[in-house]
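Take a careful look at the protein record below. Let me know whether the structure tokens fit the sequence:
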Amino acid sequence: MSFMRADMRLRVILLLVCLLTVTSAAAGAGHPDAHLRVGLTPVFLDDHVNFLRSWQNYLEKHLGQPVEFVQRKSYREINELLLRDEIDFAWVCGFPYVQHWHTFQLVVVPVFKGKPLYRSYLIVPASDHSTHDWRDLGGKVFAFSDPDSNSGYLYPQYHMHQLGIVPTQFFRAFFFTWGHRNVVEAVAAGLAEAGAVDGYVWETLAKQDPQLTARTRVVARSPLFAFPPIVARNELPETTVERFQKTLVHMSDDPQGRALLRELNLDGFSIEKPELFDSIHQMMLAVPSR
């Protein structure tokens, strides 16, 4: 009997340990000592180590807990980390966001030139004076940025579909650069004869590295789309999401926050509704295959 009682006590203790472990994991990011993991997609920030350190310090100061930036080379890698709950927040593209409406929580949308909107740019080498629109690209080598990018892949696919252009038959060749800056560099170096790039990234590079963008020319600009948002994993506690959201929205209210926003070439962050991304969702549905 004493052996059975001891065995029962052991089982109860193990059950309590398991319950405490699960509860601790669920609370995770809501605890002030837990790291908030923020995923960054491959935009021009890849080489800005000092900026990321300053932004990390700013966020930690205002959130009152450690912050860790997680960088990957493709949008898909960041999306998968978020879907597996291995990061808490991520700056993603509008295309993956509309693919995961019910999984990603919309936190904030960056404000660029006074609006939470941006465009896709079609660029060619600056020496190319004969290309005036998409129809002039037949037989050329084209650079897309990323298969999960709205400005660098979905919109170009949609626009070409509207024009009756089939990329595999139209271009001599095309490839992915896995980064918007990489598209600009590929076109500037002549590795590609044209490319699709995030207009915000091109405009920001024009300020930070004007010699690079001067070797390219913007041929066409897309309609305005919802800016790539910052989202949260679905299971993140509401209080954690609200604190992070409030911290980003109020960056424009103090000098240090405004200085960081200037480096990002942004006016700030705003709270928007998912409907802002409807046009991207409609394009996704309209493109027959990707």
Notes: Confidence is low (pLDDT under 50) at residues 1-28. The chain is about 45% helix and 20% strand.
